[in-house]
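We now fix the convention by which a protein and its fold are recorded. The integers have meaning only within a learned vocabulary of local backbone shapes. The record below shows the convention in full.
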Amino acid sequence: MKVAIITDQHFGARKNSKLFHDYFLKFYNDTFFPTLEREGITTVIDMGDTFDNRTGINFNALLWAKDNYFDRLRDMGITVHTIVGNHTAYYKNTNDINSVDLLLREYDNIKVYAETEEVKIGDTKVLFVPWINNENKEKTFKKVNKSDCKVVMGHLELNGFQATAGHVMEHGMATTPFDRFEKVYSGHYHCRSIQEPVHYLGNPYEMFWGDVNDTERGFHLWDTETFEHTPVNNPHRLHHIVYYKDTDYQLFDARELENKIVKVIVRQKSDITKFEKFIDKLYASNVAELKVVENFAIQEGTEFEAFESEDTISVLNRYIEESEIDLDKSRVQKVLQEIYQEACELV
């Protein structure tokens, strides 16, 4: 039996941005739902962070999610198993109050898991592990240690994995409790990564500049008999980097940049007039957002150089790594990562 696994959809993301929801919808219309129909999928496993804001929901974003996702799954007769993630748990120390339970009670086809539970998917018993917090930690690991399941699916914060591009999590839990399982699939980190038996499957689409040129995004088909998972990639991009080096605006094809977020990195600009015409052409192509980068804020003489190809968080992480500070550099990087993420969400 084949099932679909998707995680970290973050409905309502980026302050309920219409631009982002239109971009999300291309993935669902062009890739996700056609694949479910073609493969005859009757079960979807959602491994957490279905909604973006753990303390509230914009009504328009909720209507969008119901019209374009939840209603369609219901009408297709698809059963959805939804695991509570950190973005869908209202409190940080308990999963008892969570958005997926409160907002989706009208759907008989959706089953919500706020506590660790063994669930039969096809002929295979799977251990669902939602977000682990102070209230459920002891009980969760008792169930993990007792379970005879071969497969775990959860929303786990494990250390040693790439959380976002350029940032490796160093303060999560050890993988040790999960080492005895044949396969461990998790949401939470948006980058795909593997350290057997743990597989972070990644989220379906770009959400921040750090996602540019990162690992492929999309969802997965999982075989309940062989435990093989097959990626189904999202072909659509939202963020584009354009390198300007006295580029001829008349020859530059800007058509693919319509409704995209574009960053122009200037490598060489000899003629201001030609550069302005190049920028005008980008605006004429109806880009959604446009930023021009001509230099970098972080410069330390000859001791540190910010490379044009690096994204912001990579520059910050490398700057901390190369600096001579008497602090735990990994903790400083973690704080900067959190601040940067919050700043992105305010845009």
